[in-house]
């Protein structure tokens, strides 16, 4: 959950890839969250396993990336290194345009996918990427 007024994100993970955040004045980085059981395990086991949350600052003007493992997982590579490549690639995208502009977010997403999945015709895994741009305060 992103609370724009409080300028923070509340996260938990059910085995998902870490969220990448790029603040307007700093490098892109992982937002760490406690890792819980995968979604659906509670229903299968009949046991209520709670999810732990963490809240982290997220300033206006930030860009947030949510993605599936298909964007960063490759045979013969370290997934942790590939997540760092994603963060570094996001960090290299221009900060000139407004982070909430749909055309900017579309162009950034196309650049990230094109950089991490250079041959989509032979890529065997699904890829999902969602970019969120947090607006600057008005006025």
Report on this model:
The chain has 139 residues and is α+β, with helices and mostly antiparallel strands. It has helices at residues 41-45, 79-91, 102-116; strands at residues 2-3, 8-11, 19-22, 29-31, 54-57, 63-67, 129-133. It has one domain: Phosphatase 2c, domain 1, CATH 3.60.40.10. The strands form two sheets. The protein has a four-stranded antiparallel β-sheet. The longest helix is centred in the C-terminal third of the chain and has 15 residues, at 102-116. The mean pLDDT is 88. This is PPM-type phosphatase domain-containing protein. Residues 2-132 form the PPM-type phosphatase domain.
Topology:
Elements: E1 2-3, E2 8-11, E3 19-22, E4 29-31, H1 41-45, E5 54-57, E6 63-67, H2 79-91, H3 102-116, E7 129-133
Helix pairs in contact: 2-3
Beta-strand share of residues? 15-25%
The H/E string reads EEEEHEEHHE
Proper CATH architecture: 4-Layer Sandwich
CATH topology (level 3) name: Phosphatase 2c, domain 1
Counting structural domains, the number is: 1
- Helix percent reads 10-25%
**Category from helices, strands and their pairing:** alpha+beta
Number of helices, counting only DSSP H or I runs of 4 residues or more: 3
């Amino acid at each position: 959950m992103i609370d724009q007024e409080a300028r923070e994100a509340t996260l938990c993970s059910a085995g998902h890839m870490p969220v990448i955040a790029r603040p307007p004045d700093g490098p892109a980085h992982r937002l760490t969250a406690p890792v819980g059981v995968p979604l659906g395990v509670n229903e299968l086991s009949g046991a209520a396993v709670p999810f732990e949350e963490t809240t982290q600052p997220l300033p206006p003007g930030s860009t947030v990336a949510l993605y599936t493992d298909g964007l960063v997982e490759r045979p013969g590579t370290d997934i942790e290194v590939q997540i760092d490549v994603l963060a570094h690639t996001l960090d290299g995208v221009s900060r000139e345009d407004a982070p909430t502009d749909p055309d900017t977010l579309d162009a950034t997403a196309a650049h990230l996918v094109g950089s991490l999945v250079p041959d989509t015709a032979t890529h065997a895994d699904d890829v999902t990427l969602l970019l969120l741009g947090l607006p600057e305060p008005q006025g």
